[in-house]
Design brief:
Blueprint lengths: L6 H11 L10 H18 L15 H11 L1 H34 L11 H18 L5 H30 L9 H11 L1 H10 L18 H29 L9 H5 L5 H32 L9 E2 L8 E2 L1 H18 L2 H30 L4 H23 L7 H30 L4 H5 L8 E10 L8 H9 L2 E14 L10 E5 L7 E9 L7 H18 L5 H10 L7 E3 L10 E5 L10 E4 L1 H5 L1 H7 L6 E6 L7 H16 L1 E11 L6 H16 L15 E9 L1
Parallel strand pairs: 3-4, 3-11, 4-6, 11-12
Antiparallel strand pairs: 1-2, 5-6, 5-7, 8-10, 9-10
Helix pairs in contact: 1-4, 1-13, 3-13, 4-5, 4-11, 4-12, 4-13, 4-15, 5-12, 6-9, 6-11, 7-8, 8-14, 13-14, 13-15, 15-23, 18-22
Subcellular location: Cell membrane; Membrane
Keywords: Ion transport, Membrane, Potassium, Potassium transport, Transmembrane, Transmembrane helix, Transport
Main location: membrane
Amino acid sequence: DHGEGGTFALYSKLCRHARVSSLPNFQAADEELSAAYKKDDDDDAGFISSNEDFGVDGKSEKSRVRLTLENHKVLRKVLLILALIGASMVIGDGALIPAISVFSAVSGLEFSASKHTHDYIVVPAACVILIFLFSLQHFGTHRVGFLFAPIVITWLLCISAIGLYNIIHWNPHVYQALSPYYMYKFLRKTQRGGWMSLGGILLCITGSEAMFANLGHFTQLSIQLAFSFVVYPSLILAYMGQAAYLSKHHPIDSNYVGFYISVPEEIRWPVLVIAILAAVVGSQAVITGTFSIVKQCSALGCFPRVKIIHTSSKIHGQIYIPEINWRLMLVCLAITIGFNDTKRMGNAAGLAVITVMLVTTCLMSLVIVICWKRSIFIAIGFIFFFGSLEALYFSASLIKFLEGAWVPIALSLIFLMIMYVWHYGTLKKYEFDVQNKVPINWLLGLSPNLGIVRVRGIGLIQTELVSGIPAIFSHFVTNLPAFHQVLVFLCVKFVPVPHVRSEERFLVGRIGPKEYRIYRCIARYGYRDNNKDEHEFEKDLVCSIAEFIRSEKPEHDGKRKKENAEDDSDENLTVVGSFSADIDGIRLCEEEPETSGSSGLKELSSSRAASEKTETKMTTKQPKKRVRFVVPESPEMNNETEEELQELMEAREAGMAFILGHSYVRAKSGSSLIRRIVVNYGYDFLRRNSRGPSYALSVPHASTLEVGMVSYV
């Protein structure tokens, strides 16, 4: 999905081509963002978009499948749950793969210790390495990434050389095992026993299911080239070498790992060190893939808000999530200590791997029809060929439920419940807000000063609504008859595209007549975009409103009142770029009062700043920063526009206050027992323990005001 991978990347791709999105506040203006990506999807698929893309031809295969999904709520829920299952399994991989990778690598210590000291060496060593691995995550991949390539290349060359040595030394004819005939012969001879052993084979491909979730770090071509010409040949030589050794050494202790037995004793210690380093690198890749999946789920409203730290200023895909990192570490240590056995760990990891692959195959078949507009028979052939193979391995893994395979199922159920409860509660709360929003007629019936005292500054009201006035506003005005001279209803939302360009970041509009000084601002982000810090966000927000005021077409207030009363949709919103992207628009400068202004552009500065300069110095040790707008010379502004910009400047100079709605969500009377448990306990617990809006995390407490309300859903 334009440089992003994973099950949720496929889901967002489907959401752009069919109305199956789980986001409740999707607008018509967001279709323009999706349209650009849909055109690129068509170009990537190798054809030009036609009317079928918009469902005009209702007889087309793509339209029939799309309309079936759109018209059946149950199918949309099944599609969402399918994507959540794949995501929850990948998150579970973040605990399973490091555990088995490090434990199997450290198990080489068995050869230097007796069986009685096994528990005192292997398990503690594996736990220490895992704690060290998860503790390093907050430094970011880029700080130690320069070591990854040499370690992996050394490891691949090492296992290739050992495999080649074993082939030549023990059984040169083992290359015949590459023939599919022997696979058929093995299954025919062993029958049920051979089918059950397929679950162990999945360990050979562990990690590949999360490989494309790391597209934020690597390109698609680099993964294809590295896997086809380096990784795959090395693995084939390694496994052929082990097979050659085992063909001449049948009576071995099954408790030992086959790889270390086939390693010559003279180089066993160096290989052990390289194996541990390679296990750490492989685990690191899976953990970062887990962070990427969690961020995608959170952005699309399917995971509680968590703290996301961007560890690299150059590569946007490198992130760190503390809450997920430490919980994964605890689960990983519990699996390592509890199982203490690579066989049961392998059964657990194998089921997680094949489940993610099965989910990916199902979503991919829909992408073939809906997004790529290929024949439905191609999709059926795709899912039949790959799905049948994966179903064979899936059934072989599932039969080992009591031998460790229950772990990924339990982990995925926990994560699935968390994600679905959060999504359900968020959706119901938004529906309640929409039903109880205040009509604009109520606002128009007030006097220009809203019947209350207007104080200096900007009041920023956080809301999830993209139209209408939230009930929190009337609730606040009723209990506190004072408000700021400039009001902004702010909605920060994510759209199902990877990235939103800075030039299309904000949607800005006006609520009521000009003299009300009330604006609506919608900040849009893709599910892989980086949120700026609080100060930069404030500057972008004020500049977007100023640019909207400057570029707004003059209209009669009577006409505006009529339009706003009849329609509170997003038709009157204007797309405005962010402060950093709009080089031709208004720029905001904040400086100390003593600093001289720049020349070359028309400046609009606060007259009140000059008149109160002396007073400010007398009352405070550190005077407030002087705020001014640098406005392009053309087009010329009328006096009314300059006056409005002047007032916005003065409000910005006075400061900005954040008014956050604090809703207590409760199930309404008459609800079923399950709904009461989900809403009153499940969603309420997640909401109280999740992060607040990202832009408000660093806002001083003195500038934040929470307004409490109870929402009955």
